[in-house]
Amino acid sequence: MRWLILTLGLCYLSTSATAQDRAAIEAQFQSWLKHTVWARAKSEGISKRTMNRAFNGVTLNWKLPDLVPPGTAKAVPKQQKQAEFGSPGRYFNAGSVQGATSVGRKMARRYSATLSQVESDTGVPARIILAIWGRESGYGQVAIRHNAFQVLGTKGFMSTRSEYFTSELIAALKIAEAGHIPPDQMKSSWAGALGQPQFMPSNYLTYAADGNGDGRADIWTSAEDTISSIGNYLDQHGWVSGRDWGFEVTVPSSVSCTLEGPDQGRPIRDWAGLGITRVSGKPFPKQEMQGQGFLMMPAGRNGPAFIVTPNFYVLKEYNKSDLYALFVGHVGDRIEYGVQDFRGRWDKVGGLYRSDIAAMQRALEQMGHDVGGADGLPGFRTRRSIGRWQEATNQSATCFPQTHMVRALTQ
User: Fold this and answer.
1) d(Cα 339, Cα 147) in Å, to the nearest integer?
2) Which end of the chain is more exposed for a tag (fewer CB within 10 A), N or C?
């Protein structure tokens, strides 16, 4: 689950600083807090007392990823030792899916009143809220141990996104200043995300909600506040009440995988008219037929396919990953409807480094394709660009990067 992914995410740190260097950098960090951060915090209404409590005993955390110590040009990654991308199906391992489902059903019974109220207020289904809660923190069962001010301070001082994390650090100080939680109890992930719904501090200030009526939005220890906060977040990001997130489908060979993407939507009745059917054998719900639907094939022709609704892209506002949004929708359906695994089979594709995919993306860009940036991540623009290249070169479109394509595209 998420805590395992986050642990694996701590993949590298800068090795360019000796112990002596680190002592000097630590002194620079303390000076930065004292002058730069305090000046900004004071201008935004933070008291000296809150500032002192937040950073009492706080030092740099050198184990965090993406660190760029002063005097170095960039973060130094560890050498890759294994392929970074395999089949997207690995994201849906049985332990994660079944665990999130079984505990989710228990939480559905335990917090049925709160879930029902939030669903009534926001239109966000209880099963979706539960699935996000499970994915983010194991329904509050995963210990969140990091000191938020150490994480945000370290990343604000010396990371590849220092300005972003400095702003989040100020937001965290505002949370403490308002008395939502004592500074020494503000725990976060290694990336600075707070509490059971894993909100960044700025999102807490905007979307955290009081679900139990005690006048506080306690996303660290209150299940009711966590449920209400997740529902409010999705509602404020445009969840469409009365619509589903999506449906697993069968895509006939006559329908190109290059039609994938949120910019190629059409009414679901039109997708059905092309011969796309639900794997369950049921027709698409009548209330969905007039609404926009989008083809989503996270592994191209090498895995399950879906027709998703605008709500799928609301889920991506919580986490930008297609697979994350798909996991949430799938687990939610398992919790409420008892559905089983996807009918489509995840093939063993992949075996690529991000650098391989980035090289393919650059080659496709030179051909005039929009891959969404050469970031080494096979998003929908990259997937369909591969398919368009395949079709242009008289190949069957599969719309997913594979090892044999690297040389063919880059030679």
Assistant:
1) 39
2) C
Name which of 297, 310, 276 is nearest 382 in CA terms: 297
Tokens for 255? 């329908």
Model confidence band, residue 221 (pLDDT cutoffs 50, 70, 90): very high
Q: Strands, DSSP E only, in 166-279?
A: 187-188, 246-250, 266-267, 277-278
b/e sequence 347-386, b meaning 16+ C-beta within 10 Å: bebbebeeebbbbbbebbeeeebebbebebbbbbbbbbbb
Q: How confident is the model at residue 84 (pLDDT cuts 50, 70, 90)?
A: low
| Helix (H), strand (E) at residue 355 | helix 354-366
Per domain, the residue ranges of the chain are: 2-79+145-194, 246-321, 354-410
Could you give the CA distance from residue 147 to residue 188 in angstroms, rounded to a whole number?
6
Q: What is the pLDDT of residues 283-310, one digit of tens each?
A: 999 999 999 999 999 999 999 999 999 9
Residue 80 pLDDT exceeds 60: no
Note the pTM of the prediction, 2 decimals: 0.90
Cα–Cα distance for residue pair 373/364, rounded to 1 Å: 10
| Calpha distance 136→267 (Å, rounded) | 32
Cα-only R_g, the chain? 23
Beta bridge partners of 246: 308
Is residue 192 within 8 Å of residue 165, measured between CB atoms? yes
Q: By percentage, how much of the chain surpasses pLDDT 90? A: 85
Half-sphere exposure of 351 (CA within 13 A, CB side): 8
How far does Cα 298 stand from its chain's mean position?
Answer: 15
| Nearest-angstrom CA–CA distance, 64 and 13 | 6
> What is the residue whose two structure tokens read 């642990």?
7
